[in-house]
């Protein structure tokens, strides 16, 4: 390969890397401003001055771009998928285990940073709520398929968000120092009851 060809390839690589970083920068701004639902790939591409096809080339989907924009670990979506593999049986324990194991990995994981900043930062609150609604609450309600599915999924949110706040933000004992298995044993049945326990009489 000639020096000219090497320089041309190097130039294309630099240009592509710069475009990718520009897309990410713009995506962060727009997701923060408009939330996940109010932001489209076309909006991001226009603001970043690239073709929408380039966004899909780098990130695959809008969800992939969202995850990259807040730097969600690549193993989080597969972990979420695994929640639903076994259906409703034991899903309470799987949900608690997935939540705690992922948030325990580091105080600086993106989900942890969103969780910590949500109470005081409306943008983080919006991103965290939309992530939970899209990845967990909506799918739980669909899996249940009952008239009270939305209420039951909302009750699950109360449990898992309360656990996250108690363990990682307020550091309430003994929740803060309990092992994953202990938390699964304590909270798993509560979450399961929210989903599959007897309906509340009205």
Q: What count of helical segments does DSSP give?
A: 10
Let me know the average pLDDT: 82
Q: Tell me the strand percentage band.
A: under 5%
What is the number of beta strands? 0
Radius of gyration: 20 Å
Q: Measure the end-to-end span.
A: 77 Å
Oligomer: single chain
What characterizes the major β-sheet?
Answer: none
Given as residue ranges, the uncertain stretches (5+ residues, pLDDT < 50) are: 3-13
User: Approximately how much helix is present in the residues?
Assistant: over 70%
- Shape by Cα distribution: globular
Helix-strand makeup class:
mainly alpha
Order of helices and strands: HHHHHHHHHH
Descriptive report:
The chain has helices spanning 3-34, 41-48, 52-59, 62-69, 76-85, 91-104, 110-117, 122-144, 149-169, 180-196. The protein is an all-alpha fold and 202 residues long. Helix 1 crosses helix 4 (62-69), helix 2 (41-48) crosses helix 3 (52-59) and helix 8 (122-144) packs across helix 9 (149-169). The protein is globular, with a radius of gyration of 20 Å. Mean pLDDT is 82; it is low at 3-13.
